[in-house]
């Protein structure tokens, strides 16, 4: 560990200039478990540590200094000014896991002043962020009010219209970008995604001839699964690339008479009296303040006795909704997460009766591990398709999300609800009718 020199002063009280490694030591609450090297030749942390960080440029130091936390690190890493040592960029999970044990503190005033002098005025000026970064929320007003149709469409475009080919590399043949449900610990990602659709289908008690609306349908995985069972399905997505891919897939499978995917806001669907509605990975995008109208829409579009399956990422508490700076700027602009209690309350306040809920948190950690493995295996092709910076965003985001599910920072809940008749009858079996 590099020794700090912040206490060495002359009679005038001046302090020696600190190296990048010494600055990191000064703000670390504990001994580092990672190796750190920097462009100025300094280093700290165990020389034999399996994982580490290499700060390659002064601009990287500016990113870290002017946006402390995950946003500054993301900027430096995406821009190529920070490298992760000991891991593949497609799956940096082991390094992020180790970094979870690193804690920072505010150094004493004299040390903080020495850090500022060592960095200098130029390094304390925020550099322009990488082009992959979205504007901060307060600057997105040109796109409309948060969760207006126009702004929601732009947010979806930012994340989902990257490249269908890129998603094929990362997601695999199912083209399913939501949590899988693993029937066994050793099941493959594809088996788990197929099982997830089977579970949703069974929970909704769907059968041939029924009508299903799948809102936020992505590339149409649920749409095509249900259509293959003889169900008439309409899917809606705000992503033009998803809708185009899904319609082509429907044609390839000969499902045109049963299935349709529209490039549409779900709020523009006019058909009603659906036997069931599935919402798989949409609720994160609509905004907590819009839950009453969201669940109201669902109730209005279900027939009496119809069922809703709401599948979305949640928080383990119901106290906050923000997603964090990195996720908001690089992954899901305007996304909001809340606890399952808030979702259940909103559904019931809208007049739907919740009959069952379950947490698939560990399943999402396994799903993300599968996606990272795909990204790593197809790294060169992914970089050729979208560029290294965007590929780095995805590796960082998916590995970090996996860590969040592992550590119960985020969860994944499925909530099953029914639209009762005017006498409060549900006409459902007394016990769960599906196989978990």
From TrEMBL:
One of its GO terms (molecular function) is methyltransferase activity. InterPro entries: CFA/CMAS, CMAS, MeTfrase_dom, SAM-dependent_MTases_sf. Gene3D superfamilies: Vaccinia Virus protein VP39. One of its GO terms (biological process) is lipid biosynthetic process. Keywords: Lipid metabolism, Methyltransferase, S-adenosyl-L-methionine, Transferase. Residues 166-417 form the Polyketide synthase-like methyltransferase domain. Belongs to the CFA/CMAS family. This is Cyclopropane-fatty-acyl-phospholipid synthase. It comes from Pedococcus dokdonensis.
């Amino acid at each position: 560990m590099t020794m700090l020199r912040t206490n060495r002063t002359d009679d005038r009280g001046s302090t020696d200039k600190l190296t990048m490694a010494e600055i990191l030591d000064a703000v670390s609450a504990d001994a580092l478990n990672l190796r750190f090297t920097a462009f100025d030749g300094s280093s700290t942390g165990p020389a034999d540590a399996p994982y580490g960080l290499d700060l390659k440029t002064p601009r990287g130091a500016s990113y870290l200094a002017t946006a402390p936390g995950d946003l500054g690190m993301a900027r430096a890493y995406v821009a190529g000014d920070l490298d992760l040592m000991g891991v593949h960029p497609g799956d940096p999970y082991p390094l992020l896991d180790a970094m979870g044990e690193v804690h920072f503190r505010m150094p004493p005033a004299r040390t903080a002043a020495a850090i500022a002098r060592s960095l200098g005025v130029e390094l304390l000026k925020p550099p322009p962020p990488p082009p992959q970064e979205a504007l901060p929320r307060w600057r997105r007003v040109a796109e409309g009010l948060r969760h207006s149709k126009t702004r929601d469409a732009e947010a979806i475009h930012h994340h989902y219209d990257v490249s269908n080919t890129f998603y094929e590399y990362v997601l695999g043949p199912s083209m399913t970008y939501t949590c899988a449900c693993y029937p066994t610990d050793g099941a493959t990602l594809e088996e788990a995604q197929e099982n997830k659709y089977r579970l949703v289908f069974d929970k909704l008690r769907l059968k041939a001839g029924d009508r299903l609306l799948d809102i936020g349908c992505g590339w149409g995985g649920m749409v095509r699964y249900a259509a293959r069972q003889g169900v008439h399905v309409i899917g809606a997505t705000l992503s033009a690339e998803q809708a185009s891919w899904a319609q082509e897939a429907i044609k390839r499978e000969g499902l045109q008479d049963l299935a349709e995917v529209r490039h549409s806001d779900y709020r523009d669907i006019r058909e009603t009296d659906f036997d069931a509605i599935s919402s798989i990975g949409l609720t994160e995008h609509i905004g907590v303040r819009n839950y009453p109208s969201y669940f109201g829409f669902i109730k209005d579009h279900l027939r009496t006795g119809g069922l809703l399956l709401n599948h979305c990422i949640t928080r383990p508490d119901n106290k906050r909704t923000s997603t964090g700076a990195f996720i908001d700027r690089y992954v899901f602009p305007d996304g909001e997460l809340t606890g399952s209690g808030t979702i259940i309350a909103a559904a019931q306040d809208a007049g739907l009766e919740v009959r069952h809920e379950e947490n698939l948190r560990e399943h999402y950690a396994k799903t993300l591990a599968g996606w990272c493995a795909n990204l790593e295996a197809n790294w060169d092709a992914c970089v050729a398709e979208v560029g290294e910076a965007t590929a780095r965003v995805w590796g960082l985001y998916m590995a970090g999300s996996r860590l969040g599910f592992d550590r119960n920072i985020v969860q994944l809940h499925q909530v099953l609800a029914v639209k009762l008749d005017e006498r409060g009858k549900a006409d459902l079996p007394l016990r769960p009718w599906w196989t978990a």
